[in-house]
Amino acid sequence: MDQNRIDQIDRMLLDKKFNGAVLIAHQADFRWSKGYGYADFELDVLNTAQTKFRIASITKTFTAAAILQLLEKGLLRLEDTLDRFFPDYPHGEQITIYHLLTHTSGISNFRLDADFYEVVHAPSFSEKLIGMFKDEPLQFRPGTSYAYSVSGYFLLGTIIERLTEQAMRTT
Q: What is the pLDDT of residues 82-134, one digit of tens each?
């Protein structure tokens, strides 16, 4: 991408009063980055190219993509059941990777209560967080309904970590 095209993008983002950060790269070749607008309007803090943003549920897209990459490598199948990865998980023989990906597992969401904030920094974070929701009753029989499940995607992330031996989260 040439400098003229980058200048066009920069002008457009300024004209539209874009608020955020932009990075342009191709493969390993960094081309350009810049922050626009405010990271915090109340405190008058501007965005920079180094501003960190909370991406929250956008991580589900990355998690799903990583699961599909593991599928392509033959390390798992969409039909694999949860008990393959978590042998003592209640109803694990009924819940598939597909159910977790499509929010059709029936698994309840974990609650962001006081216990969550104690667990989040624990060395055995994954096991403790899973322990917060695994014994909750299923909301419905897997595959029969839909309910958005952060817990299901947390399980997928833990599966990815176990199969790749790489951490999904950073502190």
A: 999 999 999 999 999 999 999 999 999 887 666 776 777 777 788 888 988 99
Q: Please name which of 122, 125, 115 lies closest in space to residue 154, comparing C-alpha atoms.
A: 125
Query: CA dist 79 to 49, 130, 146, 162, Å?
Result: 42, 21, 18, 18
Distance separating alpha carbons of residues 23 and 148, to the nearest angstrom:
31
Q: Is 124 a catalytic residue?
A: no
The answer to whether the CB of 47 falls within 8 A of the CB of 37 is yes
Q: Give the pLDDT score at 169.
A: 64
pLDDT tops 90 at residue 55: no
Catalytic residue among 57, 105, 124, 126: 57
Using CA atoms, how far residue 30 sits from 26, 49, 135, in Å, is 7, 13, 46
* Domains in the chain with CATH codes: 3-46 (no CATH), 56-164 (3.40.710.10)
- Residues 82-95: pLDDT tens digits? 999 999 999 999 99
